[in-house]
Design brief:
Alpha-Beta Plaits, about 60% helix, about 750 residues, alpha+beta, 4-stranded antiparallel beta sheet
């Protein structure tokens, strides 16, 4: 591998103009397709095969009026008044008239006629039903809907919007994300000791992310994907794009610290060595994200593949565009103290390599001197962070978790106050009586309604809505408990097991559906798919790391460390977002179950990122052991050489991910927090602390591979043993087809 990447890096440096133009052209094409022909992302999470989705599909086909998007207009009277006053009734009537005129609205309920008023008369609601699914309602109609609320607002009423139509899309590009990128640049400048070198990873990462995200935007025209997919692709692509370029640029700068090091050879050698680590790490991330397809959940599969495609682009950028730009910069990236004339001939030692900062060596020696105490304290600390994960509850995002100042959150709170917490957990019992004789349908539905109404956890059962032919019936069911309450989950299972039996006994089919039921179904689907997903990536890690390091114990240690990172990361997420700690600091509107796909995404993404640091750190250790056969010195050397870069890479990722913590979208906020905490834990506690301690205790055994396995495992050479001697090209071959200079081309 190293030899091929060496040739690729040298070719890219020689043909740097062509490589640059190729990426500029690719970015321009992606920009044109993504902006002019881009599709529309959805805010819905559909999962084929689960009961709630089967009911939704049935309604779309045979009862579209019940499957359309809904805007719930919530009215609240000012203090000391109620909604039954003449002024308030007039304002509500005028508002509903405006709402009915919104394009796409086919029906509007009146709270005065439907009885949709709280017992004290201070809170009421009206439902505006659209003739098409919420995702197809145009933004122009949503804007008209906002304007339609003006009569009630002018009358002094509080008016808020809920329902599926009002769900806001995830958006990026706010001040917090920009601050994250600025922090990343500062970290790069400190790590590389050069503003020019610091700017290069940012530029290349933006190119890769631009191509990836714009392509995803274009593909959304043909493939249904949630808006979270684009945000995830941006988040992951930007972070790994900066890190991968950092690995190669830092290795190049380290080599150029030798005054005799030839620039083209250094570019090629950095691409071969650090590029091998980038390739292994990138492929690991891609496969881990693509493995999300094993969950059998389409929206999660699309999210994983979108992010995987962006990571693959980041690898290609690091192996081609980065060497090309290094070729343009030429001698500018050589450290000042290594440039010709920086030192007198008497004080310069030919061939002497620059040593990284002494803190890395000091840290490595501390880990090797006290491995057992370090290991015990670190593992116990991670287990303590992981404890809250035992109480993990999964669900789908609801209006309760929207920002506290948003109309969606306010409408949720008003409805809970006026009608009880279960009102926001409304279920729908959908009866398909197509196979039931027409004369028996009404009786079967009545028996179901009576059985449901007698359940102690049911507050009310709304009047049935029936198709014209009487074949499909929808019963609205309001539980006494909220959507995130365990009693509501138990209620859904109880209704499915017993309450709908009169319909099934008569030959029909009944479903318990609605947003709350959908969240329960998706969570159950993910829980059942999780063991297979974790097994796939664990086996993947063992095989790839065995291939990279020709060792059995090193992959086992890496996997165990990864599992510790995951447990601690999930535990921290549960402690903040589910248990409600530090909600003010992170602007969390309400404590609630974790979005059901967040743990799976965290496992897939963090696995790949953890392998980044593992490969980059341990490859330097193995390289030293391979040449000197001193296990303890190899550990210290690896931390000394790679500690600074791994630290910078982790801080950069944390800065990028951390910017998304303050995004208004609760799902993006949770993902950003989970990845930020996960990366920091894995880099600083596992890779830079536990890994050196464990490898010190294992000694030479860490690098052992049974003879029969050694013969079976191919040698991929990520250390660069197959490369020509340093400076050989400089002495015996032409430097390049076009000279590598100080930026001229």
């Amino acid at each position: 591998m190293a030899k091929r990447l060496y040739a690729l890096g040298r070719w890219a440096a020689r043909r740097r103009s062509r490589v640059l133009m190729m990426w500029v052209l690719l970015l321009a094409v992606a920009a044109g397709l993504g902006t002019a022909l881009g599709g529309k992302a959805t805010t819905e999470f559909s999962v084929p095969g689960v009961e709630s989705q089967q009911a939704q599909d049935l309604l779309k086909e045979k009862f579209p009026q019940a499957a359309g998007g809904t805007a719930r207009v919530v009215f609240a009277a000012p203090g000391g008044a109620n909604l039954s006053g003449e002024k308030e009734r007039g304002a509500i009537a005028a508002t509903l008239k405006e709402v009915a005129a919104v394009p796409g609205v086919i029906n509007v309920t009146d709270p005065a006629k439907t009885g949709a008023l709280s017992k004290d008369g201070t809170i009421g609601y009206a439902d505006a039903l659209f003739g098409e699914p919420a995702n197809n309602v145009p933004q122009s109609a949503k804007d008209r809907l906002d304007d339609a609320l003006d009569p009630a607002k002018k009358a002094g009423l509080e008016v808020e919007l809920g329902g599926t139509v009002s769900t806001p899309p995830a958006e990026v590009g706010g001040p917090a994300e920009v601050v994250g990128v600025v922090v990343a640049f500062v970290v790069l400048a400190l790590a590389l000791s050069s503003l020019v070198a610091a700017g290069l990873p940012l530029v290349t990462a933006l190119v890769g992310v631009g191509v990836g995200v714009l392509t995803v935007q274009f593909l959304s025209r043909f493939i249904e994907m949630t808006n979270t997919a684009t945000v995830l692709a941006l988040m992951i692509g930007l972070a790994v794009g900066i890190d991968y370029a950092l690995f190669i640029v830092s290795r190049h700068r380290e080599q150029l610290a030798d005054p005799e090091q030839d620039v083209p050879d250094s570019i090629a050698r950095a691409t071969a060595t650090a590029g091998s680590a980038v390739t292994f790490a990138g492929v690991t991330v891609v496969i881990a994200l693509a493995a999300l397809a094993t969950t059998g959940i389409p929206f999660l599969t699309v999210m994983g593949l979108a992010a995987a495609g962006t990571v693959l682009l980041a690898v290609l950028v690091a192996l081609t565009l980065v060497p090309a730009l290094l070729g343009f910069l030429g001698e500018r990236l050589r450290p000042k103290n290594a440039r010709p004339g920086a030192n007198s001939p008497q004080t310069r030692t030919p061939g002497r390599e620059h040593k990284p900062g002494s803190w890395g060596l000091a840290w490595g020696r501390l880990m090797t001197r006290f491995p057992i105490p370090v290991l015990v304290v670190s593992v116990l600390g991670l287990l303590a962070l992981a404890l809250p994960a035992a109480g993990l509850r999964l669900g789908l995002p609801s209006n309760e978790t929207q920002p506290a100042a948003s109309t969606q959150h306010k409408s949720y709170q008003l409805l809970s106050k006026g009608f009880g917490p279960g009102f926001n957990a409304t279920l729908a019992v959908v009866v398909d009586g197509t196979r039931i004789p027409a004369a028996q349908r009404r009786t079967a539905v009545k028996e179901v309604a009576d059985t449901v109404g007698k359940d102690p956890d049911i507050a009310t059962v709304a009047p049935a809505r029936v198709t014209e032919d009487g074949a499909i019936t929808v019963l609205g069911v309001v539980p006494k408990t909220g959507p995130d309450d365990q009693r509501t989950t138990d209620l859904v299972h109880r209704l499915r097991d017993h309450a709908v039996s009169p319909v099934t006994d008569a030959g029909g089919t009944a479903y318990v559906a609605g947003a709350t039921a959908a969240g329960i179904d998706v969570s159950a689907k993910l829980s059942s798919a999780l063991p297979l997903f974790v097994t796939i990536i664990v086996v993947l890690a063992l095989l790839l790391l065995m291939l990279a390091f020709r060792s059995v114990l090193v992959p086992l240690k890496a996997v165990l460390g990864f599992l510790l990172s995951i447990a601690a990361g999930i535990g921290t997420v549960v402690w903040v977002f589910q248990d409600g700690h530090l909600t003010g600091l992170f602007q969390v509107a309400a404590a609630a179950p974790i979005a059901c796909f967040v743990p799976v995404l965290l496992i897939g993404v963090l696995f790949g990122l953890a392998m980044d640091y593992e490969v980059f750190l341990v490859s330097r250790m193995r390289e030293h052991f391979h040449h000197h056969r001193d296990a303890r010195a190899a550990v210290e050397h690896g931390v000394e050489r790679s500690g600074r870069v791994v630290t910078a890479a982790a801080l950069i990722m944390a800065a990028v991910f951390g910017g998304f913590i303050f995004n208004h979208d609760p799902t993006v906020k949770t993902i950003g927090f989970a990845l930020t905490v996960g990366v920091l834990i894995d880099a600083f506690v596992v890779r830079l602390t536990i890994v050196p301690a464990v490898l010190t205790l294992l000694g030479r055994h860490a690098w052992a591979l049974p003879t029969w396995l050694d013969r079976a495992v191919p040698n991929v050479d990520i250390e660069g043993d197959s490369l020509p001697p340093r400076h050989a090209d400089h002495r015996t071959a032409p430097v390049a087809a076009e000279p590598v200079g100080a930026g001229k081309d």
